[in-house]
Design brief:
This protein has 361 residues and is of the alpha/beta class. It has helices at residues 23-29, 44-54, 71-83, 95-108, 161-179, 187-207, 219-240, 245-255, 260-275, 280-290, 294-305, 321-330, 341-353, and strands at residues 12-15, 35-39, 58-62, 88-93, 112-116, 127-132, 135-140, 148-151. The protein binds nicotinamide-adenine-dinucleotide.
Length: 361
Amino acid sequence: MRPFVHDLTSPRVVFGPGTLSQVPEEADRLGVRRVLLVAGTRDGGPGEQVARALGERLAGRVSEVVMHVPVAVAARAVEAARQAATDLVVTVGGGSATGLGKAVALETALPVLAVPTTFAGSELTPVWGLTEGDRKTTGRDPVVMPCVVVYDPDLLASLPADVAAASGLNALAHCIEALYAPDASPLVPVIAEEGVRVLAAALPRVVADPGAGDVRPGELSDARSDALYGAWLGGTVLGAATMGLHHKLAHVLGGLGLPHAQVHAALLAYVTAVNAPFAPEAMARAARALGADPAGALWDLAHATGAPTSLAQLGLAPDAAGRVADLVLEAPPVNPAPVDRERLLALLDSAQRGDRPAPIQ
Ligand code: NAD
């Protein structure tokens, strides 16, 4: 056994169908009186429910939720928290809502209770992100880590199938990169391998059309619970280990305006193919969890679930690769495969075209 540091902070997790109704109880448990609710209008259903249930504890609301948290949006949310003299931020939504809640916590040190409605995993990390122009800045600060996470699989029912597939692959990407993370304690790959297995099995069932197939009654709901369990595992390892080239590329492409989860879905197979020869132990675990060559299996999963499999599909201009490579090379990540310009351009070329990666011999 090699020496290691295990530094994993986990929020209190409340998991199960219908647990949205427990948010007021959880707020009371924290001893708070004045809640700022952060919930976008598209997530208005559960946001409304929580607002009603909070009753007089609801001191303010922010519904301007924008992906990658533009600094101006964050500043307005911080102001809303101060105006309302809140003592807890409750976020209801995907990574964008969670991210906005974290931006408020970063400035105010308010605790955050997160109710995720996608599989993004932000609710389990001390990582915040803010965007100014085409540059996204991220940092780690324990103050932004939510203290309670309420996972209610019923909230995933409204997620369109293509968004669910992409978001699930986002969670899978956390697991894949955790398998070769340089600072992972021995527990991290164990959790990550389970995450790969659970997500790969659940996502096809989550996106299955109940009207078209032979889905048994109740199965979709179980699939969502399974996928959300996988998202918890993915978020856990995302918070516990340093991510590599895949997350770096997704971060850069996000700054250029590409949608977060879809970028993860489109890139994962190609980065995995590039890293495979340099990370044999990680790939053995991934292959065990996926039941096949990891890069090809991840591409097949994206394809089968209707997630994007190429950057061209997401509108990346063919001549953008040079700029993307420059931005990555400004601060290259620690990664199994050496990160140089030639390798980056080759990877981006494959991801732009979208062909299924060939098995590594
Ligand atoms: P998102 O929160 O922007 O949601 C995507 C879309 O789906 C939005 O239009 C949203 O309104 C809608 N939506 C969300 N949940 C829904 C539901 N249940 N039903 C119907 N529609 C729903 O996207 P995301 O992928 O969850 O999060 C992306 C953001 O999170 C990015 O900014 C990314 O950088 C950040 N992120 C941060 C971390 C971290 O550790 N800091 C981790 C993962 C993601």
